[in-house]
Amino acid sequence: MSVQGSGPWPGATVAMRIWPWKVATVTGLVVGGAWFALAASGGGVRAITVASPASLGLVAFFLIGGMTALAARPGMAGSVPGAADGQIWALRHPWAFALWPALATAVAVFAVRRALVLWNLEESLLSTTFDGLGRGAAVLVCVALFGRAVARKS
Length: 154
Fold this sequence. Notes:
By secondary structure, the chain is mostly helical. 75% of the residues lie in helices and 0% in strands. It has helices at residues 10-18, 21-40, 47-71, 84-92, 94-117, 125-153. The two termini are 21 Å apart.
């Protein structure tokens, strides 16, 4: 794979090629489902009872997916066949790679929480925006620092 030939946004292309979809999806569903079960055990299901677990599940999906994509070696669980060049690029550019899961986290959390406003989630547009941006920033820093640590160890 020639990362230079993949356009002006090679990080997005690399992220899509090396993303461990199964590992990330299972992690997001388990974390979000467990948090929902815990939140719903206290009484009725309201919008916030759905919003918090959904947001946490999305963060887990993008955080664990990004970290697994950086750490997986060929043949390991979570590795994607034929993704070695993409992983090398991602380890050389951990901040550029981590930007894409972080942006996706921010957009997905914002979209889910704005959709739940229709179901009587009492949250302002500004609050929803900062919630998405904050969670995206956390994913950016964690995935990028993890990528730097993995690259240093390799």
